[in-house]
Amino acid sequence: PLFVGSECDEQPYRDAVEAADVVLAVGSELGEEATNGYELRFAGELIQVDASDARVGATYPATALIGDAAGVLAQLIGRLDAGRERGGAERAGAIRRAIATDLGARGQETERAVLRAIRQALPAHAITAWDMTILGYWAARDFPAGPRRFLYPVGSGTLGYGWPAAIGGSPRGSGRTPRPGRRCRAAGAVR
User: How far, in Å, CA of 120 to CA of 136, rounded?
Assistant: First the structure.
């Protein structure tokens, strides 16, 4: 309910991030793609969580929290006042609606409809692997997926990532025990 997107070229997203009191960047060097060519500006404090202190502050001044992301986030969550409602879900919903309105006004409904059709065709627990394609770029922005269910080479420009990622993300490739009836499905085209 608090997710607002991740695309700096979407003005409602960018406005929210730039106006935030605190921005928590986890495992991100805040490179060119993530910051719209380093145009993103932070009005509040930027806190970066990373396993390497060499990456923190490489592109923007930041407060460092060094360590494994899962451990650092667990400690942060333990310190939050979880019972206090701050209206974040409502604000996030308004931002998502504004982004959807902007995308609709650009005449890009076909791409979003294809992604909705793929989402509806897959089971909710499906792990998807995407490559550096136009549809993959759209998926990085608009494909709804749960935690550890969306595999995409963000920022690396690695053509050919999708197939080995699909194998690695499958129950057999990852070392997990597959549930009965579960299969790895792949789709692609070669000309």
Answer: 17
For residue 59 the two structure tokens come to 């592109």
Question: How much is the pTM?
Answer: 0.71
Give me the sheet containing 45-50, strands edge to edge: 22-26, 45-50, 63-66
3-state SS of the chain? CCCCCCCCCCHHHHHHHHHCCEEEEECCCCCCCCCCCCCCCCCCEEEEEECCCCCCCCCCCCEEEECCHHHHHHHHHHHCCCCCCCCHHHHHHHHHHHHHHHHHHCCCHHHHHHHHHHHHHCCCCCCEECCCCHHHHHHHHHCCCCCCCEECCCCCCCCCCHHHHHHHHCHHHHCCCCCCCCCCCCCCCCC
Beta strand 128-129 with 63-66: parallel, antiparallel or unpaired?
unpaired
Under the phi-then-psi rule, with left for phi > 0, alpha for psi from -120 to 50, and beta for the rest, what region is 15?
alpha
Residue in the structure block whose two tokens are 């409502």? 90
52-109 pLDDT per residue, tens: 988 899 999 999 999 999 999 999 988 887 666 678 889 999 998 998 888 778 877 7
**The tokens of 79 are what?**
């310190």
Q: How many CB atoms lie within 10 A of CB 18?
A: 15
